[in-house]
Amino acid sequence: MSSLAEVAPRFVGASERIVCVGGGHGLAATLEAVRILGHFPVGVVSVADDGGSSGRLREHYRHIPPGDLRRCLGALLPEDSPWSPLLEYRFSGGELDGHALGNLLFSAVCASSRDAAEAAVGLAALVGAEGLVLPAGNEPLTLLGRAREDEVAGQVCVAQTPGISDISISPSNPVVDPLVTEAVSSATTITFGPGSLFTSVLAVCKVPAIAGAIKSSPARKILVANLASGAGEAEGLTISRHVELLAEAGVPVDVVLYDDSGIEAGSRSADASWVRGELARPGGRIHDTSMLAKALAALLS
Which member of 16, 201, 236, 247 has the greatest number of CB atoms within 10 A? Predict the structure, then answer.
C-alpha cells in the first residue's frame, strides 16, 4: 500500500485535516457536509455489517461488507458525478437481486487488490471521490452485544436488541491498515457520528489500533449527535448517555454538536462544549447536510 501522502495529498497537505468515524447513512451525512466546505476528509467506516447485500457478499467472498463504504463514497462525489446514481443502483430479480452496483464494484476491485484498504483507495480513485473512505479493519468483524445477562452476536441482531449496554468485536484485535492510524494520528479534527452508537460509531472505536490512535491524537473530537434515540440498540438513550458511553470506550468528546428537537439532551457534561443548532431536515430524523456544513464551519473556523 502507498503512503497517505501518495493516496491523499490534499488531506496530508491541508491545514485542517478532518477524519470522520462511523458507518452508514450518518457518516455519509458528515462526510458530505465536510466535502461541501471544501475539505478532503478521510472517513473510517465500520466493517461489521452482516445484513442485506453486504452480508451476502461478505459471506460469499470473505471480504469486508461494502455497503457502508459504498454509501460514504457516494457522499464524497461532486453533485454532477455520473457515478452517484450508478453506485446506488440496485438490481431487481435474478441472481443479482438486491445487490447495489457499488457493492459489486467493490468486490471486483477487491479481487485484484492485496487488501480491503487498497480496494477502498482504488474505488475512491475510480469514481473520483473528493476524500477517502477507509475500512476499520482489513477483515469483516462480528459484533457481540451485551444486553442485561444476555449476549447477542451480529450487527443486525445487536441493532434490533433493546437495552444494549456494551459491545465487543471478534476478532478482538483485527489488522488495521497503517493508512487508517496515520490519518487518525495526524488529524486536527475527528468527528463521530451521527448514526447508531453501538453498531456504527463504537463498532469502529472498539478496534484496539484505532482506539489507541484516537486516544493519543491531539485532534479536537466532535460528536455529531443523533436527532432521535430510535428503536432497538439505543432506544431511550439521551445525548449525554452517548457521550458517557464514548468516554467509557476511551473516546473523550470535546464538542457536542446537537439538535435536541427530537431527542433528549440529558445532563450536559462540563467536560465538553455543547453547541446547539438546527440540523434536521423536515421530519426531524435525518440531518440536513447544508445545515450540518454550516454548523461545522463555525466550529472549524
Answer: 201
What is the tens place of the pLDDT at every residue in 50-90?
999 999 999 999 999 999 999 999 999 999 999 999 999 99
Q: Which three cell numbers stand for residue 29?
A: 451525512
Residues spanned by the domain of 68: 4-300
Between strands 164-170 and 142-147, the pairing is antiparallel
CB within 8 A of 164, min separation 6: which ones? 145, 146, 147, 152, 158, 198, 233, 234
CATH number at residue 46: 3.40.50.10680
End-to-end CA distance of the chain: 33
Number of domains in the chain: 1
Give me the residue label for grid cell 463504537.
202
The 10s digit of each residue's pLDDT in 1-20 is 679 999 999 999 999 999 99
Closest by Cα among 255, 241, 167, 160 to 211? 167
pLDDT band at 98 (very low <50, low <70, confident <90, very high): very high
